[in-house]
Write a structure and sequence with these properties.
Strand order of the largest sheet: 3-2-1-4-5-11-10
Largest sheet: 7 strands, mixed
Oligomer: single chain
Order of helices and strands: HHEHEHEEHEHEEEEHEHE
Radius of gyration: 17 Å
Helix content: 25-40%
CATH superfamily of the largest domain: Vaccinia Virus protein VP39
Distance between the termini: 33 Å
CATH class of the largest domain: Alpha Beta
Number of domains: 2
């Protein structure tokens, strides 16, 4: 098991606590992606692959709107969470264990849209690894289909290399939850520690460690164009309402 799998396996049953209301967040993100799909020329008959689905945040939001969704992830425990959440809401989503660097090993079909949200691509710590992921992802997109992916705004972050992120503080029925991150930089790679503090009926502290690379938009744009996309555009939070910049690439 590699560091990324361990990170998400460990985080799986705690991930929803990073949000005040995960179900509401899932629905809101589904609406944001739906709007981007429609602007790109797709409608709700589109078949979507969420290749870094986690516990199903975007997959479930899109399925609620009527999209046909196939969801995959490298973390078995997050897939279990996603399956359970989809079943609770009577949603027909196919969940598959797959590495987004080798999607052709798991899928023999192409999709109208492939999404990779929530800063998943920066787990690729070298340009070679990122290129492998992009080549794999674009290979699963149908002609005239689209790719949507979100990453942190590393073009700005790399300038100051912050050592922490501002905390999220959620007031709950029995107290509060606090989530924040510590970042330790070495070049353009940073060690990432996610803290989750639950100060409710009793005090609980959890921490989860992983690594990311500060991928700049030009690098990702160049790889998408190199591997078969004909048009790449970036959408920013002030336009979309999503918390990270989103790349929209048309094949």
């Amino acid at each position: 098991m590699n560091i990324v799998q361990k990170f998400y396996d460990d985080l799986a049953d705690q991930y929803d606590k990073l949000f005040l209301d995960w179900n509401n967040e899932s629905e809101e993100q589904g609406v944001i992606l739906d709007e981007l799909f429609q602007k790109a020329g797709l409608d709700r008959s589109a078949k979507v692959l969420d290749c870094a689905c986690g516990i199903g945040t975007q997959s479930i939001g899109l399925a609620k709107l009527g999209y046909s969704v196939v969801a995959s992830d490298i973390s078995e425990r997050e897939l279990e969470q996603g399956k359970s959440r989809a079943k609770e809401q009577n949603l027909d989503i196919s969940f598959t264990h797959a590495d987004f660097c080798e999607l052709d090993k798991s899928f023999g079909e192409q999709f109208d849209a492939v999404i990779c949200m929530d800063n998943a691509l920066p787990h690729m710590l070298t340009t070679k690894d990122l290129e492998k992921a992009i080549k794999s992802i674009v290979g699963q997109i149908s002609p005239n289909g689209i790719f949507l992916g979100s990453i942190r705004d590393y073009d700005e972050l790399i300038l100051s290399k912050p050592t922490y992120s501002p905390p999220y503080i959620h007031e709950c029925d029995k107290g509060r939850r606090v989530a924040f991150q510590i970042w330790s930089w070495s070049g353009d790679i940073y060690q990432f520690t996610q803290y989750l503090i639950e100060d409710e009926a009793e005090l609980k502290v959890n921490k989860f460690d992983c690594k990311y690379r500060a991928i700049r938009r030009a690098e990702l744009t160049g790889l998408l164009l190199k591997h078969g996309c004909r048009e790449v555009e970036w959408k920013f939070p002030e336009e979309t309402g999503f918390y990270q910049p989103i790349v929209v690439a048309k094949k």
